[in-house]
Model the fold of this input.
Amino acid sequence: MSSSPDRLLLELRSIRVPGRNAPRLDDVSLQLRPGERVALVGPSGAGKSTLLAVANGLIRPEAGEVFWNGAAPARSRRRRRLQQALIGTLWQDLRLIEELTVQQNLNAARLARWGWPRALLNLMLPVETAANAEVLAQVDLGADLLEQPVTALSGGQRQRLALARLLRQDPLLLLADEPLAHLDPRLARDLLDLLLKQASGGRALLLSLHRPDLLAGFDRVVALRQGRVVLDAAPSGLTGQQLAALYRSEA
Amino acid sequence: MTVTSAWSWRSLRLAPPLLPLLPALAWLPVLLVLPGLSHGGGWDLIGEFAWAALNPSLDPLVLGSLLSGLGITVGIALLGWALSLALGLLGGVLSSRTVWRTVIGSALPAELIRRLLAVPRAMHELLWGLLLLQLLGLQPVVAVFAITIPYAALVARVVSDLLDALPTQGLDALRLAGAPAAPALLTALGPALQPGVISYGGYRLECALRSATLLGVFGLGGLGTDLRLTLQSLQFSELWSGLWILLLVMLALEALLRALRQRWAMPARFGLTRRSVGRGGREVALGLVLLLPLLVLVAAALGVSPLQLGQLQPLPPFTADWPAVVALPWLSLIGSTLGLTLLAAALAVGSAPLLLLLLAPWRWGRLLIQAVWALGRLWPPPLTALLLLFVLQPGVLTAALALAFHNLGVLGRLLLEAEESAPMQAEEALVAAGAGPRLALLYGRFSALARSYLAYGAYRSDVILRETVVVGLVGAAGLGSLLLESLSSFAIDQLIALVAVYVLLTLMGEDLSDRLRRRLLAA
Done:
C-alpha cells in the first residue's frame, strides 16, 4: 500500500448519472487525498449511494471522469479489477455470504488478487488463518470465530466482520454506505471510531451518513441535494442553519 | 489463542458453492475411457448432421408431414396432461394425510393409497406405452394413457405433499366452529394449494410434450416417429426441419407458461413455496373453462375415446419358464442400471453449473448455453443415443451420455432460472472489490443456490433411474435393454419379473432421493 500525500486517491470530475425523472447525479466533482476522512450527507434520494457506486466502479457515469489513485479506469479487465481491489466498500446491508464461514468470507475479499487455485482451496481448507485472525483482532473479534458460519454471529459481530472483511481487502480508499443506519447509538459510535481509526496514513474514508450528530472526527463534510454537491466544508464551519436547510424538504 | 494454518485432511470440508460442481468430476474417467469407445466411423455423418442444422428441408411435402405429426404429438400431450391433472388432483386429495385426518380422524387410508400410487409412478411412460400397445394395438389412445397413468400418480404425490405441508390452524378453527369436513378443507386449504398446483401443472405440460415426442420415437405416432425415421434413413435436412419446429413450439410453450406464472404470481419451480392466490384466480378459472371444449375437439380429431380401452387385442398364449427367469444375471443387470443412472445423473447435475460458471460471464455465453440446453430438453434421449452410435460403440457410457444431455437441458434451465432470480448483492459486492466475474458468481451466487439445486438434482436422479429404460435400445446392458427385448419377443414371464424389479428399484431410489433431498434442504 503506497500513496504520496499530494496524490488524489479518488477524483470525480463533472459526473452525471441519469435517473428516471431527474439525474441521480448532476455535475458532481469530488477529490479525496490520503488520510482524509470525508462525510457525505444529504436527505434520502440525494444521490449518496449513487455517488459511492460510481466511486467503487459499480456504476459507469453517463458523463464525467473517474480517477482511482491518479489513474483512469483501465481498459484491460484484469488491470481494472486490480484497481478496484484498492477500493473497499462497507455496505449498509453488509453483503456477507451467509452460507460460508467467517474465514471464507474474510478471504473472499482477496479474490481480486488470488488466482483460481487459491480461491478454490479457500472453499475446502482453512487458508491464511493468521492474516484473518489479525483483522478480526483489529475489530475486537476473537480468532475462535474463524470457522463459525456467518449465520451463527450476532448483529454486532456481523457489522464487525463486514469491517474486518474490508480491512482484509487492504484498500487505499474506504467507502461506507450508511454503515451506521439501524445500529443502536453505542454500536454506531464504536463502529464509526473503528472506521475513522482505519482511515489514517495512506488511506482515505468516504462515508455516507444520515446523522449530523456524528460528524465530529471527519475532516470534511460534503453535502448532496437532488444529485448536486451543495456544500463542501470542514465540520467546524458547518452551521445548524445550513444542516436544517439541507434536510428541510425531508422534514 | 494460537492460530495455526496447518492443513490436514481432517480440516477438509467442501463449502456450499463447490458442492454443485463436484459431480462434474465424473467427466474425468469418462474422458479417459471415451477414446477407447470411439469407432471413428461416423464423424462424416456427424458433420453432415451438424451442417443440416443450417439447411433444414423446406419441401412443402416434408413440412406438411411434420406439421401433421406435430399436431398429433401436441394433441396427445394435451390430452394426457389434462387427464393426468384431473386424476392426479383426485389422487392427491385421497392420499393426503391432512384430508383423511380431518374426515375420519386417521391418516391410515392416505398411507395405503400413497403406497398403491407408487407403483404406476415407478414405471416410465414408455413402459406403459409399450405395455398398452400390446393390449390395445397402435392407436393414439395408447400414447394418451401412457402419459396419463404415471403422470397422474406423480401429480397425486406432489398435490398430497403440498396439501400436507400447509398449516392447518385455519382448518382447525373452522372445524371447531362446526363446519363439515369437505367445505372446511376446501375453504381453509383450497386457496393456499392453488398456486403450487397451477405452477406444477404448467411444468407437467412441458414434460407431457417431451413425453409425447419420446413415445413417437418408439412408434406410437406423431412427430417423434418422423424424427426417428428421418434419423435412421440419414435424411438430416428433414430431421432438422422437425427439430426446429419442435424447438419453436417448446420454447413458445415455456415462454407462455413463464409469463403466466409471473402474471399470476405463482411460485417458481425450483421450490414450490406457498404464496397467496394472485389476482389471476378469475383468469385461471376462465382458462380452465376454455380448455374443456378444446380438449373435446382434440380428442375427436385424434379419434381418442375411453371406449377404446375395452377393445383388447388377443395376446399370445402365456407360457412361463420361471427357472430361466431366475437364472438371469440379475446382479449384473441391476448393477449396470444403477451405474448408468449414477453416471448420467453426475454428468447432468455437475455439467449445468460448470457450464454456467465457465460460459455465462462471457458476452454470448448465456445465449449459447440456453440454446444447447433447449436442444437437450427437446432431443429425446434415444435419438441422442442413436446419433452417438455413429461414432461410439453401444454400451453404458453411450447411454449415459444420451441421458445426461437430455437431463442437462432440464436441470440447466432450472439452474439458470434460479440463478437469475437469486439475490445478487453478495456477488455485486465481490465485483466491486475487484473479483473476476466467474469467482464472484461462484462465491456470491452459487453459495445461495447450492443446496436447493442439489436437492432438485437428487429428484432428477430418481427420474433418470426411470428413464434408463428409454436408452435400452442402444444396448446399455441394463434392465432396460432386456426389458425392450422381452417386450418385442413376447417373453411375458421375463417381462413381469423385469418390470417388478424395475418398480422395486425405482421405489428404493425414490425413497433414497427423498431422504437426500430432505437432508440437503434442512442443512
About this structure: The helical segments of chain A are 48-55, 77-84, 102-108, 116-121, 129-138, 155-169, 185-198, 240-247. Residues 94-170 of chain A form one domain.
